[in-house]
Specification:
The protein is an alpha/beta fold. The protein has a single domain (3-228, 257-318), classed as Protocatechuate 4,5-dioxygenase, Chain B (3-Layer(aba) Sandwich), CATH 3.40.830. It is 35% helix and 21% strand. Strands 1, 2, 3, 6, 7, 8, 9, 10 and 11 form a nine-stranded mixed beta sheet that branches. It has a two-stranded antiparallel ribbon with strand order 4-5. Strand 10 (294-303) and strand 11 form a beta hairpin. Helix 5 (143-155) packs across helix 7 (207-222) and helix 7 packs parallel to helix 11 (279-288). The chain is globular, with a radius of gyration of 19 Å.
């Protein structure tokens, strides 16, 4: 039977892929972001945030994040899993409003990673100018495990969507390519992607549902008739692009305490706000990894403007 040997949760915000000396490029992006009123945020922001915007502090936070990522890479390499399940959000990469699943498991044979510069992505802000491009690469999928999870999780009462092809003009989503670029040591470890609608109304999942789906995943993995080691990685979060340290603290406390009730009580009006919904990926991982011991490696609120915008980076490991 299969064994879950490692759990990882990591932020994947753009500041992790952007050298600290270029963080200032995000100021214009946030000032013009149509999803929030920058001037209103600026008027309400805590004055002390301004003291966190020096180049020296940017560098110290960037270095702290990179050190935590290095720890996660080391843990993954040491665990040497035979397969990895990656829980990540989809942001108009595979799914749009004409077909927006709440949860979907990919069971195709190959994942294609396409450089962002080559993707058919409509955007008003050139992200590659801030944090560069990606390589074109291919990764194998663990098809047998994917089919097993689909059947077993549905049998436990969860109605999953499935997919066996990626949109050729987009390839693997950003939540997954961050993991392949920054955590996996080589492109030969087979992956099962589990996509979560953490962003778009009206069918965003609640925290309790994500936690319970994680527990169903755990049961299914342990019933897989393969003598293999499995790792689980949650990609995304925490609060952004408006940082909410209080909410992040409650989410991390719930994961550390393995407290489903606390996680279920997180205020969804704040959890579902912009990229903060990626915390749902962490909550699902927490449910799947209840039998392992959680360890918070670091929490780094990476403010990048005086309005309190940025990405709160966090890094956790279960073993």
């Amino acid at each position: 039977m299969a064994e879950i040997v490692l759990g990882i949760a990591t932020s994947h915000g753009p500041q992790l892929r952007t050298p600290a000396e270029r963080w200032h490029l995000f100021l214009e992006k946030d000032q013009k972001d149509r999803r929030f009123d920058y001037q209103d945020l600026l008027a309400q922001a805590k004055p002390e945030i301004r003291h966190q915007l020096s180049g020296e502090i940017f560098k110290s936070k960037y270095d702290a994040c990179q050190a935590a990522l290095a720890q996660l890479r080391g843990a993954f390499t040491a665990a040497a899993p035979d397969a990895v399940i990656v829980i990540g959000d989809d942001q108009h990469e595979q799914f749009w409003e004409d077909n927006m699943p709440m949860f979907s498991i990919f069971y195709g044979e190959t994942l294609e990673q396409i450089p962002r510069s080559a993707q058919n992505r409509q955007t008003w802000w050139n992200s590659t100018a801030a944090y560069g491009d990606q390589q074109r690469r291919s990764f194998p999928c663990e098809v047998d495990l994917a089919h097993h999870l689909i059947g077993q999780v549905i049998a436990q009462g969860f109605d999953l969507a499935t997919a066996n092809k990626l949109k050729s003009e987009m390839g693997i989503g950003h939540a997954f390519s961050f993991v392949t670029d920054h955590i996996l040591p080589q492109p030969t470890i087979p992956i099962v992607p589990l996509m979560v609608n953490a962003f778009f109304p009206p069918n965003r999942p609640h925290p309790a549902r994500c936690y319970d789906l994680g527990k169903a995943l755990s049961r299914a993995i342990r019933e897989w008739r393969a003598d293999k080691k499995v790792a689980i990685i949650a990609s995304g979060g925490l609060s952004h692009f408006i940082i909410d340290e209080e909410l992040d603290g409650k989410l991390l406390e719930g994961l550390m305490r393995k407290d489903r009730k606390l996680l279920a009580q997180l205020p969804v009006d704040r959890l579902w706000r912009l990229g903060t919904g990626e915390g749902l990926n962490w909550i699902m991982a927490g449910g799947a990894l209840e039998q392992l011991r959680p360890k918070l490696l670091n929490y780094v609120p990476c403010y990048r403007t005086p309005a309190g915008t940025g990405c709160a980076m966090a890094f956790m490991q279960w073993q």
